[in-house]
Amino acid sequence: MKIDTALKEKSGSVLGTYTGDGTESREITLGFQPKALYLCSQGGLFGVEDSAYKVYGGMAMPGHPVVDQGHNNEVAVEITATGFQVHQEATYRKVNTSGWTYHYHALR
Fold first, then answer.
1. pTM (2 decimals)?
2. Deepest in the core among 18, 41, 76, 94, taking most CB within 10 A?
3. Which of 80, 102, 98, 99 is nearest to 90 (CA)?
């Protein structure tokens, strides 16, 4: 077993990135269900409150997704059994915008 693989399996958290592909719903597979997940855009955004509140990420836990509170509490980011799922919407939920890089920190 390689050292980096062993460390990843033993680590209490996983840091990573993904590049948005623009699809409406996308699963990011980690191989475990996170106890908590923090997600933000490469620029550090997780939400912007203006006349049209926008969600770029946030903190999610099992049963407690990140929601778009400005627009009918639509789910933006939710924990799954094997990682997390992002739900893109072009105007308000920008969690999988094509070409954008997103950073996450998942706790085991």
1. 0.86
2. 76
3. 98
